[in-house]
């Protein structure tokens, strides 16, 4: 791969220590006019002028390599030329159409259903939503309706959005603490984390499955009934945790044995992020229901649920409403996203280059004990920081100090994990090799800088935030 016009070729380029004066002025105006709940402007204190490919330029002329990609929204980068053209073509036709067929809608449906995993391919129906959280909530409602039961198995570390009832599916306490919408029966079980096995068993995946069996079969377990299991093939906000290889296939078997529906939340793992078209493709598992969002709109809000065509005979009219569902602009872009991913080699490149990036991170871990674990698939890689390698004591201060140090040197990278102590690599699949190499160099230098600093506070610029938790959005 050669460097091309998709990105600013000279990134990273810091011409004035960020935030520069122009950024500071716009940040101040935002702070005055917008809610205090805004998070990302605190983690990355800059104002954006333009974005191209895998790079961003702020209003002061600083250029950054973007390893955030809108939290996996931009698997094809900022303003991919084919997506821009698709958007312009559709903008000349129709912008809003409710549920009435348009050429954009039908072409998208045909493209999506023919790209679904396993037995869902060409044998699925689609329910349009708006956000990822909206999709997961709709998927659970659909499972309950189809089975005539309620009760959803969801995992520790899970993030399924904070939209309405979806917040109850998300694992983090702090999200539910600010929500007034509660409902649904959630059966929370551990996610098998090879680095931090909750059940302390060598076969952590099977331990989780045995516990789930207990909950359904023991009359005194406290669980009355269930309709579905909702799972991220790889934990996203929970730390980019890759489960053991037997987990997803065993979960599929568990659902079949107990007449439960398997819902795959592919909002973050889907569309090439893991080096496969869908996250479940890493284990050849077909879910009954799949949630799609983020990259499918290329930056324009869009989401949907695809489900087995034989799952329900008929859904009531207005089963899941939303004025902006299936927006023609988003669907025209989504069709082009699917075409690019099917026609070009970005997914296979992500698998190959992702292995190389992981190898580099592991090299850094060998000389920097603050890195406790490196894991991932494709371009979905987590780097977890610990104070004590033997005890695996989470070190969120180091992860946040790394985020600040990287930002100051022109690389955008964000935190995740239950303890907010992991950095995640989620660069666009289209990132140019020279930019990828420069980003890795900046990352290694940041590790060395922090190792040499007398304290984490030494790496904090006066104007940056020391906010204690990652901002997440769906």
Task: Give a quick precis of the structure.
Helices cover 34% and strands 14% of the residues. By secondary structure, the protein is α/β, with parallel strands linked by helices.
How would you sum up the global shape?
A: globular
Strand order of the largest sheet: 4-10-9-8-7-5-6
CATH architecture of the largest domain: 3-Layer(aba) Sandwich
Catalogue the unreliable spans: 457-471
Through-space gap between termini? 32 Å
Q: Average pLDDT, to the nearest integer?
A: 91
Elements, N to C (H/E): HHEEEHHHEHEHEHEHEEEHHEEHEEEH
Number of helices: 13
Tally of strands: 15
Instruction: Estimate the strand proportion.
Output: 5-15%
CATH-wise, what's the superfamily of the largest domain?
A: Type I PLP-dependent aspartate aminotransferase-like (Major domain)
- Percentage of residues assigned to helices: 25-40%
What structural category arises from helix and sheet content? alpha/beta
The CATH top-level class label of the largest domain: Alpha Beta
CATH fold-level topology of the largest domain: Aspartate Aminotransferase, domain 2
List keywords for this structure.
alpha/beta; globular; 474 residues; Aspartate Aminotransferase, domain 1; Aspartate Aminotransferase, domain 2; seven-stranded mixed beta sheet; 14% strand
């Amino acid at each position: 791969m050669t460097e091309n016009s998709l990105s600013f070729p000279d990134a990273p380029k810091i011409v004035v220590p960020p935030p520069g004066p122009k950024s500071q002025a716009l940040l101040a105006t935002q702070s005055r006019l917008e809610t205090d709940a805004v998070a990302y402007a605190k983690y990355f204190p800059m104002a954006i002028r333009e974005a191209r490919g895998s790079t961003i330029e702020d209003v002061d002329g600083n250029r950054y390599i973007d390893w955030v990609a809108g939290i996996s929204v931009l698997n094809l980068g900022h303003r991919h030329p084919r997506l821009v053209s698709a958007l312009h073509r559709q903008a000349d036709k129709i912008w809003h159409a409710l549920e009435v067929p348009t050429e954009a809608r039908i072409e998208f449906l045909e493209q999506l259903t023919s790209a679904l995993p396993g037995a869902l391919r060409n044998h699925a129906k689609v329910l349009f939503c708006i956000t990822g959280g909206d999709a997961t909530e709709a998927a659970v409602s659909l499972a309950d309706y189809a089975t005539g039961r309620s009760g959803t198995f969801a995992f520790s570390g899970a993030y399924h959005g904070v939209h309405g009832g979806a917040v109850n599916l998300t694992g983090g306490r702090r999200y539910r603490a600010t929500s007034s919408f509660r409902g649904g029966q959630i059966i929370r079980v551990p996610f098998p984390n090879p680095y931090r096995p909750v059940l302390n068993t060598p076969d952590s995946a099977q331990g989780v499955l045995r516990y789930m069996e207990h909950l359904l079969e023991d009359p005194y377990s406290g669980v009355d009934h269930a309709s579905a299991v909702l799972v991220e093939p790889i934990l996203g906000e929970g730390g980019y945790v890759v489960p053991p290889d037997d987990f997803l296939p065993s979960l599929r078997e568990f659902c079949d044995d107990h007449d439960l529906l398997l819902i795959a939340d592919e909002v973050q793992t889907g569309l090439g992020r893991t080096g496969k078209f869908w996250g479940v493709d890493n284990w050849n598992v077909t879910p009954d229901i799949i949630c799609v969002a983020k990259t499918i709109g290329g930056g324009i809000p869009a989401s949907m649920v695809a489900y087995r065509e034989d799952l329900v005979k008929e859904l009531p009219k207005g089963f899941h409403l939303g004025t902006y569902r299936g927006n023609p602009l988003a669907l025209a872009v989504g069709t082009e996203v699917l075409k690019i991913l099917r026609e070009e080699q970005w997914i296979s490149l992500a698998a190959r280059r992702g292995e190389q990036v992981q190898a580099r991170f592991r090299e850094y871990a060998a000389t920097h004990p603050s890195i406790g674990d490196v894991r991932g698939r494709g371009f979905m890689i987590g780097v977890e920081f610990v104070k004590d390698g033997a005890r695996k004591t989470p070190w969120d201060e180091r992860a946040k100090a790394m985020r600040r140090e990287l930002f100051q040197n022109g690389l955008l990278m964000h935190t995740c994990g239950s303890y907010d102590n992991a950095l995640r690599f989620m660069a666009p699949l289209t990132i140019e090799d020279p930019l990828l190499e420069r980003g890795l160099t900046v990352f290694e230098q940041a590790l060395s800088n922090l190792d040499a600093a007398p304290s984490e506070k030494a790496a904090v610029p006066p104007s940056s935030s020391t906010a204690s938790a990652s901002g997440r959005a769906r």
